[in-house]
From TrEMBL:
Specifically methylates the N3 position of the uracil ring of uridine 1498 (m3U1498) in 16S rRNA. Acts on the fully assembled 30S ribosomal subunit. The lineage of its organism: Bacteria, Bacillati, Mycoplasmatota, Mollicutes, Haloplasmatales. Pfam families: Methyltrans_RNA, PUA_4. Residues 71-239 form the Ribosomal RNA small subunit methyltransferase E methyltransferase domain. Keywords: Cytoplasm, Methyltransferase, rRNA processing, S-adenosyl-L-methionine, Transferase. It is found in: Cytoplasm. Belongs to the RNA methyltransferase RsmE family. Its EC number is 2.1.1.193. InterPro entries: Alpha/beta_knot_MTases (IPR029028), PUA-like_sf (IPR015947), RsmE (IPR006700), RsmE_MTase_dom (IPR046886), RsmE_PUA-like (IPR046887), tRNA_m1G_MTases_N (IPR029026). This is Ribosomal RNA small subunit methyltransferase E. The keyword Translocase does not apply.
Length: 247
């Protein structure tokens, strides 16, 4: 069943959908009054019945609350060294489907991409649209947050609000290689984890020192070297398996 995100309170009887959602309901899905959809306010999701379709809005009557929750039991932030081309869009789409809560594009020493303010603003709008579409498709209850582009120094300053912080790095010793697994064994429901993944050129030794000095644990992501756009999908899949299937 098609899902849409909008603002409403649980005690509301009627909710409204606007803008692109109206176009999607009318012209793409070709729905009619009486058809049922799912609406989410990023806290809960409800079955709803369409009661009015006009040019500017769609009104729906809330029927009942969904009991199942598709969100992971922990909060996951992926900080990604901004990659070239449309790779970050791919990361956004797939990690949203896999349950990420926040995506943070980072400019680091080996980042090739250069964004001015105008380009960044346009990119953010595009990224948020991808998040919304992927969250609706994968039946998420909440929309992941897309951060504005920040420097590694800014990321470190903001990292102290997390319970666990990891940096994926191929040059790890035998002890560090298992840090990801150790964290997943310890983390509790409601806690927050931040994982930093470098861009195509990787992470420099000086950046690793900055991160570890700030409390990041170095970890590998297995015996193979992953592309920058593959690594976050590996991370999310491991977390989902450990906490949802094994747990």
């Amino acid at each position: 069943m098609q899902r849409y995100f909008t603002k409403f309170n649980e005690e509301d009887q009627i909710v409204e959908l606007l803008d692109e959602d109206v176009h999607h309901i009318k012209n793409v899905m070709r729905m009619r009054e009486g058809d049922e959809i799912i609406v989410s306010n990023q806290v809960s999701a409800f079955y709803a019945k369409i009661v009015e379709i006009s040019e500017m809005l769609v009104r729906c009557e809330l029927l009942y609350k969904l009991k199942n929750n598709s969100e992971l039991p922990i909060s996951i932030s992926i900080a990604q060294g901004l990659p070239k081309g449309d790779k970050f869009e791919y990361v956004i789409q797939k990690t949203t489907e896999l349950g990420v809560n926040k995506l943070i594009p980072v400019i680091s020493e080996r980042t090739i991409v250069k964004l001015d303010h105008k380009k960044e603003k346009k990119k953010l709008m595009r990224w948020k649209k991808i998040v919304k579409e992927a969250a609706e498709q994968s039946h998420r209850v909440s929309l992941p947050e897309i951060n504005s582009v920040i420097s590694l120094r800014q990321l470190i300053r903001e990292s102290f609000e997390y319970d666990y912080k990891l940096v994926a790095y191929e040059a790890t010793n035998e002890e560090d290689q298992r840090n990801f697994k150790k964290v997943l064994n310890k983390i509790q429901p409601g806690e927050r984890i931040l994982i930093f993944i470098g861009p195509e050129g990787g992470i420099t030794p000086s950046e690793i020192k900055q991160l570890t000095d700030a409390g990041f644990l170095v970890t590998s992501l297995g015996p193979r070297i992953l592309r920058t756009e593959t690594a976050p999908l590996y991370v999310m899949s491991c977390i989902s398996y450990e906490l949802e299937l094994e747990g």
